[in-house]
Amino acid sequence: MKILLADDEKPLLSFLERGLRAEGYECPTLNELHEVLPFIRKHAPQIVILDRLFGNEDSLTILEAIKSLPTPPMVLMLTALDEVDERVKGLKKGADDYLCKPFDFDELLARVTALGRRLNQPSEPQKSSLGIGNLQIKQDERIAELNGTELSLTKIEFELLLYLTENQTKVLSRERILSRVWQTHSDPQTNIVDVYISRLRRRLDGDPQITIQTLRGNGYRLGVNQA
Q: Which long-range contacts (CB under 8 A, 24 or more apart) does 179-185 make?
C-alpha cells in the first residue's frame, strides 16, 4: 500500500517515513502543501497522512479537491488544533480520520490499518497474550515473572518487555519502540533502544528458551527458541 506523508515538520516526517516503511508500506514524502494535490493526481496513493497546517497555509483548502478526484485516497489529518470544532471542520471537508498531535505511533498505525480495511486491504490480527514460554506478565500489578520468579525491572525495562510480549513473534522497529516506550517521535541520535534490549536479555538469561532477536535494519522480536 502506498501512503503519502505530507507534513512541514521534517523530523516528524522522517520519523513517520521510517516507522511506516518498517511496517512494509511505501511512503513518499512531501513538505510543501502546493505539491500535494499534483502528486496525488499523478501517483494515486491509497492513503494520505496530511498535516493540517503548513506554516500559514491550511490544508483544508485542498481537501475537497482531493476527495473529488475520480479515485480519492483515504485522508488521515494530523493537527495540533485539538478543539472539537476544528476536528469537525476537517471531517466535514472530507477527512476520513483525524489525529491530534502529539500522538502515539501505535495509534497512528492502528488508524492506518483501519483505513486500509475500508480499502479492502488485509490487516494483521492483533495479539493479546501477556505470556510467552515461561515468561508471564501481570500488567495490572506490573510484575514480570520468569519460571515463577519475579524479575527486577526498572519502569522502562518493564514497559519494553511488556511491549515486546504484547507483540511476540512480530518484528518491532526502533521507531515503534521509541514511540511506545519512550513516547517520542524524534530520533534521539543514541543507541538507547539497543542498550535497553541488552539489559532485558541479561534479565532473561535464566531461561535460554526466551530470546530477543535482532533483525538488522528491521528491529527486534521476542520469541521462543525451539532448539
A: 179/19, 179/104, 179/105, 179/106, 180/104, 180/105, 180/106, 181/156, 182/156, 183/104, 185/11, 185/12, 185/15, 185/16, 185/102, 185/103, 185/105
